[in-house]
Amino acid sequence: MKTTTPAERDMQMNKATARDTRTEVLKRSIRANVPLRKTFVQAPKGAVSRHGPLKEFVTGRDLRGLKAYLMIVAACSSGVNGWTTTHDSAVWARMMDIDQTATEQSARTGAWRTLRRLEQRRLITCHRTGTKITVTLLREDGTGDPYDRPRGDTEENRFLQIPATFWTKGYDEQLDLPALALLLVVAREKNWSSFPAEKAPEWYGWSADTHERGLKKLLALGLVERREHYEKAPLAPMGVTMTYQYQRTAVVRPRKARKQATTPAAKTTTTSRAGGSR
Question: What is the DSSP letter of 146?
């Protein structure tokens, strides 16, 4: 039987985990909430297709790619290094949890292939220099246009926000692909909106079954809450129709910015609206 030395045990005990790595990335980005253009989830009204780039992750069953992309947005969108971040391929692999089920070299290769898929979807650019991989963020709509910080001033620039605690407290680790996609869908809309499953193929590009499974998982995990909503329906047997409305629970809502002390003569008010309508 192979035994481990005290030094080996000490190394294993102190080795950074995937969550440690994601947390450190978020610390470097210096932000409590990560902005993501709503066009990633759904194209604006009037577009030929309402489907956003998110559809390709869902229909392609690419949970690893979606999680990696959201982390890249978190790492790059602060603009600290010009929408770009660089890490060793082993760090990228650990960030994506690949190192848990693969050898070191296979994990490095898996990380590179995941980033290349994102590049093929025109969401990032990436290149390697030795073992280092540099990633640059592109616009979230999949057009391949250069990234700029969303301001919310136009329909194409409206954005949702994901709190950093989504990663640092491990909520991301609990979600399967339908649940993660639906969390983004719910975050895209105003609080207490309806998300009819029969509209999912038209609005988002995935099946009604996937849509329902995602909402069910989010409810089970306590990441969204649901209420009944009744509307007048003169031709319905009961005179009303009932739909479910959803909103994120507090644990995955954007964190409020800390208030800064102001003088009466120089008081400023900052507001941010991430809401929108389908």
Answer: B
What counts of helices (H) and strands (E) characterise the chain?
10, 8
Q: What single string gives the DSSP state of each residue in 22-39?
A: HHHHHHHHT-SEEEEEGG
Virtual torsion, Cα 166, 170, 174, 175, nearest 10 deg: 30
Residue type present at position 29: S
DSSP string for 189-254: S-SSEE--GGGHHHHTSS-HHHHHHHHHHHHHHTSEEEEEEEEE-TTSTTSEEEEEEEEE-GGGSP
State how far the Cα of 116 lies from the Cα of 118, in Å rounded to an integer: 5
The alpha carbon dihedral of 137, 141, 145, 151 has a sign of negative
**Single pTM value for the model:** 0.87
Distances in Å between the Cα of 58 and the Cα atoms of 121, 206, 221, 240, 277 are: 13, 7, 20, 34, 22
Q: Which fold has domain 175-252?
A: Arc Repressor Mutant, subunit A (1.10.10)
d(CA 250, CA 233): 33
> Within 10 A of 22 (CB to CB), how many other CB atoms are there?
25
Q: pLDDT, tens digit, for every residue of 57-107?
A: 999 999 999 999 999 999 998 887 889 999 999 999 999 999 888 899 999
Take residue 232 and report the two structure tokens written for it.
Answer: 């007048």
Phi, psi of 2 (to 5 degrees): -80, 135
Assign 135 to helix, strand or coil: strand
Q: What is the pLDDT of residues 255-271, one digit of tens each?
A: 886 654 444 444 444 33
Three-state SS for 216-229 is HHHHHHCCEEEEEE
User: How do beta strands 193-194 and 240-248 pair?
Assistant: antiparallel
Instruction: Sketch the domain layout of the chain as residue ranges.
Output: 16-168, 175-252
